[in-house]
Amino acid sequence: MSELRKDPVSRRWVIFSPDRAHRPVDVKSKGEEKIQEEVVNCPFCEGKEKIAGTEILAYDKILGRKPNTPGWWVRVLENKYPALENKENLEKRAEGIYDWMNDLGRHEIIVETPNHFIQLPDLTEEEIEKVLLSFKERYYNIKNNPHIEYILIFKNYGKEAGASLQHSHSQLIATPVVPNRVKEEIKNSHEYYTFRDRCIFCDIVTQELSSRKRIIEENSDFVSFVFYAGRFPYETWILPKEHASNFEDTSIEKIRSLAEILKKTLTKIQKALNDTPYNLVFHTLPVKMKDKEYFHWHIEIMPKTTRVAGFEWGSGFYINPILPEDAAKILNSVE
Amino acid sequence: MSELRKDPVSRRWVIFSPDRAHRPVDVKSKGEEKIQEEVVNCPFCEGKEKIAGTEILAYDKILGRKPNTPGWWVRVLENKYPALENKENLEKRAEGIYDWMNDLGRHEIIVETPNHFIQLPDLTEEEIEKVLLSFKERYYNIKNNPHIEYILIFKNYGKEAGASLQHSHSQLIATPVVPNRVKEEIKNSHEYYTFRDRCIFCDIVTQELSSRKRIIEENSDFVSFVFYAGRFPYETWILPKEHASNFEDTSIEKIRSLAEILKKTLTKIQKALNDTPYNLVFHTLPVKMKDKEYFHWHIEIMPKTTRVAGFEWGSGFYINPILPEDAAKILNSVE
Lengths: 335, 335
Known about the structure:
alpha+beta, ten-stranded antiparallel sheet, 7 helices
C-alpha cells in the first residue's frame, strides 16, 4: 500500500512505498561475480511463472500455451511490489498545507526474454521487436483508464542504475498526474514552436544529421546520437527522423526499424563502456494528448559512469566530464 | 578548461569539464577499509598546504600564520580541478540551435578541519561555527562580481554521494546563471505568497512545529525535520524559525545556533544510518535578490540509502520506501 505526497515547493510528487523495501534483490555491482544459484530463485525465468507476478500479456512460442506457464518470448507481469496499484477510485486530500493522493496507477514488469543470462542488446532484432510491441500494446490498453494521465516506460540495467533483479526486464508505471519533467519538456517545446513554427526535436535531428559530430547509428527511420548537452557522460538519444509525437502510434514497420537501431546503439554502449549500468527512458506525450506538432517522442539512454552529487541536487545544473563529440568517438570505436 | 552547454528542451545548463576526470580520488565506499597511507597523499591535511589549491581564506590557530602553512582551523582553497573558473569575461554564443557559454564562475573547497580522521558532525560546535562563518565570508566576497548570479554551497560525504576525497570538506560553486531548480523554487514560493500572503516555508515550519510528527532537532533559532515529501529516505531540512531569505545575512549569534542544530542533526543521521553517504545543500536567494518575503533559506540533507533509477530520471517523480514519520522515529531513536 503506497501513498503519494506533493512537495509544495518544487511541486514534485513523491510515491511513498514501504512495501518496496521488501522486494527481492539479486543484482550485482559491475565486476561482482554473478552467482549461478541466483537463477534458482529468479521469478522472471521460464519455469518460474508461478512465483512471478500475475501475467497480463505474453507473446507465445507455443501454440495454445496457457497463461503463467512456460513457452513465451516476452511476458508482461503485475509488479509484486508495486509503486502504484490498479484501483477504482482516485482519492485526494489536504494534509494541512500539504497535498496527498492514494496510490492509483499501474506498475508492470516486461520480462524481455525467458533466458536469465541474455540481456536486451544480445537479443535478436525479432526478439527486441516483440519487446517493443508489448510496450505499444500495454500503452494502448492502459490509456483508456480515465484516471491515468501518463505512462512511463523505462529500463534500469545494473545495480548503480537502480535495478534489483538481473534478469533482463523493463518497467511500465502509469501515473494519475502528468510528471513535472514531462510537463516541463512539453511546455518548453511548445514555446519553441510558438517562437519558430518548428519542432525543437526536428531541429535537433536536422542539426545532428548535418554536423554528424555526435551520430552513433542511423537507419531509414531513426537516428541515435550523443546528446549535445547530456547530463551524463555518453548520454545517447534515439529519435524518429520523421516528426511523430506519440510512441504508441509507431507503425509495425517502424517498430522493426527501432529494434534494429536500439540493438546497435545499446551494443556500442555496452561494448565501449564495458557492460556499464544504464537507465533507458521513453519520452512521449501524456495519454490524453495526441499528434502535437511541437513534441517528438524519443528514447534517452543514460549510462551511469558518474555519480550525481550535491551540486546537481541543489541546482539542477550537471557536471559532465566528457565532451559529447569525444564520447561519440569512443562509442564508435568499437567493432 | 570547461564549457557550458544548454539543453534546449529542459533548458538546463550542463558544465562540460574534461579536466575533472583527472582529479585525485581516495574516498571509499561505506564498509570498505580506510587505508592509513591515504593520509600521506591527502592535499587537505595540515602540513600538505603546498600541494593543495591556492589558499583564499583561512581562520588561523596561530597568530601571524603565513598563508599556505600549517596552524589553521578552516581553510578555503581554489579547487585544483575546477568546474568553473575565475575569469574576466563572460562569453556566450549560439552553436546552431544550441546555446554555449564559457566557464566563468568560481569553484572553491572549504577544508573543514586540519585533521584527516574527523568528519563534520564530530567537530565541536565552535569549529562548525568557523566553517559556517567561512561560507558567509566567501558568499559576501563573491557576490560583488557582476557576472555571478548564484552561489551554491554544498557538501558530498562518501563515495555514493559523489565525494572524491575523504578529508572533511564542503564546496562552493558560483555560476553565471541562476540554476533551474532555484528558479523553480523561487517562482513557486512567489506564487504561493501571491495566493496566500504567507511564506510557504514559514507555513511548513508552523505545521511541523505543531504536528511534531517529523521533528528531529529544535533550538531557539532553528528547527530540523524529516521533510513531508522528501525524494530520499530520511531527507531532512533545517530552517530558521524566523523568516529570513538570505543565508549570508544570518547574524553571528544565529550562526552559533545553526552550528549546534547542524551538529546534532547530522550526528543523529550518521548514528542511525551507520555512517551513510549524504549530500547537504544550502538553498538561498540568488545574489542579486535580497529580503524577499516569499523565500526562506534552508539546508537540505539527503542521505543516499537508495539509488535513483529510470522512473525518477524520466519523470521527476520519486519513489521513497520509508514514510517520513517512520524515518523521524528511527533518527530519534539513537542516543
